[in-house]
Structures are given as C-alpha cells and as structure tokens.
Amino acid sequence: MRMEGFLHNLATDKYKGVILEPLRFILFLLSLIYGSAVRLLILFYRLKPAPKLGCKVISVGNITLGGTGKTTLVEFVAKYLKQNGHKVAVISRGYKKPVTPCPSLVTSYESMGDEPYMLLKRLGGIPVIVDSDRVRGVNYAIRNYGIDTVILDDGFQQWKIKKDLEIVAIDAGQAFGNRHLIPRGILREPLSSLKRADIFVLTKTDISPDVKGIKYFLGKINPRALIVESIHRPVALCGIGKDAQTMDLEKLKGKNTALFSGIGEPGSFEKMAEGLGFKIGLSIKFPDHHPYSEKDLQKIITESEKKNIEVIVTTEKDAVRLEGLPVARLPVGQAGYPLPVMALRIELAIPKDEQVFYTRLLGLYYP
User: Fold this and answer.
1) Looking at residue 4, what is its pLDDT?
2) 39-43: long-range contacts at Cβ-Cβ below 8 A with a sequence spacing of 24 or more?
3) Fewest CB within a 10 Å sphere: which of 39, 49, 66, 134?
4) Per mean pLDDT, which range of 5-19, 214-228, 273-287, 334-348 is the poorest?
5) pLDDT of 28-52, one tens digit each?
6) φ and ψ at 211, to 5 degrees?
7) How far does the chain reach from its first CA to its final CA, in angstroms?
8) Which of 311, 296, 326 is nearest to 256 (CA)?
9) For 141-176, how does the pLDDT look when each residue is reduced to its tens digit (9 = 90+)?
10) Per mean pLDDT, which of 46-55, 282-291, 340-349, 350-359 is the most reliable?
11) Domains assigned to the chain
12) pLDDT score for 335
C-alpha cells in the first residue's frame, strides 16, 4: 500500500526532482501502452451493439482515479428519484472484489466493500447490488425488485452497457491532474472520452480556485453537456455503531481535533474540517480503502494523547470500516475521558442549478 501511495504521488506530480525523471519517463511509456489498450476497447464496444436493458440506466462515474465525490452523487440521484416515485437500485462493482458467480445484495463492508455498504446505510431501503457483471446485476434487480431505474456506481468505464444518461463527477480541486493517463497521471481514459457525457457535476466547488477554467474546458470539449456546480455540505457528526448518537457541528468549533482518513483525497476532508472551525492538532492519513485494525486505533490514540486532542473525527466512508472495532471506548482526551470517534456526515448539494439538474433527470421519463 505504501508503493501505491508513492505511485499516486508521482502521478499527481507531488514528488519533484530530477532524480525521479527516469521513473516518470517509464511511467509515461506505460501510460501510452495503457492508453492504446483503452482506445481499442472503446472502439471494440462501440462497434459491438450494447444490449438494451429493461429499465432506465443512469451511469454515475468519473474519468480520474481518487475521490471525486462520486458516491455522494449516487446517493443524491437515488434519493431524488425515489422521492419522485421511481423504483431504483444501485449496481456496484465493489472495490477490488473478485469476479463473482452471481450478484449479491450488500450485507457487510468486508464482503462488499466500503462504498456500497455506506450507500446501503444511507439510502434507506433502496437495494444496493454488487456484481462484477453489471448486466447480470441489472437483470437481477429488475427480476427481484421490479425496478424501473438502475444507477451504475462508477459506470463511466462500462462501455458495453447502453446508458440513458451519463453523469460524470469531476473534482474541481484537481480536475484532471497532469492530464496524463495512468500510471503517469490519474486519467482512466483519454480526455476525448468526455464527449460521451450528458451531465458534468463539478464537486467541491466551494474549495476550488478555478471553477471557471474547468467549465470553459468542458464546454469546449463537449458543448452539448449540462454543467452544474456542487458542494459537499457537512450536516452532522455521528458516532459509530448501532446506537450511535449525533453531535451538532457547532460543538467542535475551536476544539483540539484529530483527523484520520483512508480516502482518495484527504486534503478536501482537512479543508472541510478547517472550514467548520475545528482546531486541527493532528491529521493521520491511511491509504485509500484501508482496512482498519485495533493496532491502527491504538496508534491514533497514542498520537492523540501526545497532542492533547479533545475529539477524533473521521469520514463516513472510514466509519464503515471501523464497525466491530471498539471505537466507542477509546480513552482519548484530557484525564482519559472516553470520547467516541465521530464521523463527519456530508451531503451533496447543488446550490445554483438544482432545478435544471432535476429537470434533466426527470426528462428520462417525461421527454
């Protein structure tokens, strides 16, 4: 996992220096090979007719590695469609899950991955199905739940499925990285692939310095697509566990706070905490999707005690990977007072163009 972090820092040009130029050149050559393979795959599936599935198919995906806010966007779309009378299911591949012989309903983080499990907990009755074969997963949802719409979580690279709406999430803070394909950069496809998108949702625009520049670039590459700006809005602090309680965000203003996370873009989590007035005395970063252990928790406790931390905060995505561990009994803070680890709950919001976005969604059903 340390090697993964090292390569990611190279791909995002966080590591500088002439000594790394030979390695960067090798990664560049590999990115050319990767890009050629991706282009051939896209061409192959373009020539091969995609099957028309028996429901509306909405893809929510991205073109880059790392945290773009895609999962909160899936939640936002799914809840809105349900509120408007549609029977919805979410289909996910799962993170680093083996090829499965049959689709599975999400039941736990360990078996299905952190993001699907978090969606299940947040979506309140909307089925979340994990299947390495998305077409099979969609057919399973139609057959067993009578749904009229599926949302493909991380569906932009699903070239063999015919989609009714292609939504692409773009992190406004680091839109396309250095514009190289992986492994030299963070692009999963060539930027020309953005021509397939119907809607671009720029995420975290409240902490981005260059939203206008990104919108101009997207408008040039795909003038027909709708572009909307969104933010991640903190709504509460939640305890971890079955009977966890929530805490008002105002209570942590000025508190000496420790942050820890294992997500694709921890910098945005830190900026959000700072914006809420938390006094960040410690920030511990783990690799994306890190499976936490009691040893990790002990490290967090020890480091927090050294810094006289009053409260520990993590993300909701990290929180689902902490279930089963004794986080509610962590002896953290002055005099060993037992404070729970709190998860920062966030929701996606579209402050400016919310109604335009909704109209585009409902246009699938009422053209």
Assistant:
1) 63
2) 39/190, 41/159, 42/159, 42/189, 42/193
3) 49
4) 334-348
5) 999 999 999 999 999 998 888 777 8
6) -65, -40
7) 47
8) 311
9) 999 999 999 999 999 999 888 999 999 999 998 889
10) 350-359
11) 47-230+350-362 (3.40.50.300), 234-346 (3.40.50)
12) 36
Which residue is associated with the tokens 């978090």? 118
CA–CA–CA angle 158, 160, 161 (5° rounding): 75
* 91: nearest Cα among 64, 67, 126: 126
Q: Tell me, letter by letter, the H, E, C secondary structure of the chain.
A: CHHHHHHHHHHCCCCCCHHHHHHHHHHHHHHHHHHHHHHHHHHHHHHCCCCCCCCEEEEEECCECCCCCHHHHHHHHHHHHHHCCCCEEEEECCCCCCCCCCCEECCCHHHHCHHHHHHHHHHCCCCEEECCCHHHHHHHHHHHHCCCEEEEECCCCCCCCCCCEEEEEEECCCCCCCCCECCCCCECCCHHHHHHCCEEEEECHHHCCCHHHHHHHHHHHCCCCEEEECEEEEEEEECCCCCCCEECHHHHCCCEEEEEECCCCHHHHHHHHHHCCCEEEEEEECCCCCCCCHHHHHHHHHHHHHCCCCEEEEEHHHHCCCCCCCHHHCCCCHHHCCCCEEEEEEEEECCCCHHHHHHHHHCCCCC
What six digits make up the tokens of 107?
């039941």
β-partners of residue 342 are 313
Single-letter code of the amino acid located at 208: S
Question: What one-letter code names the amino acid at 180?
Answer: H
Question: Which residue do the tokens 């896209």 mark?
Answer: 42
Asked, as a colleague might, if the bond just before 331 is cis with ω within 30 of 0, I would say no
Q: How far apart are CA 78 and CA 62, in angstroms?
A: 17
Average the pLDDT over 204-226 and give the result: 91
Six token digits for residue 207:
């902490």
Q: Using alpha carbons only, give the angle 265, 268, 269 rounded to the nearest 5 degrees.
A: 95
- Residue 241: closest CA among 325, 299, 301, 311: 325
Q: Yes or no: say if 129 and 90 are a contact pair by the CB < 8 Å rule.
A: yes
The one-letter amino acid at 43: L
Q: Which residue in this structure is represented by tokens 């028996």?
A: 54
Average pLDDT over residues 191-213: 91
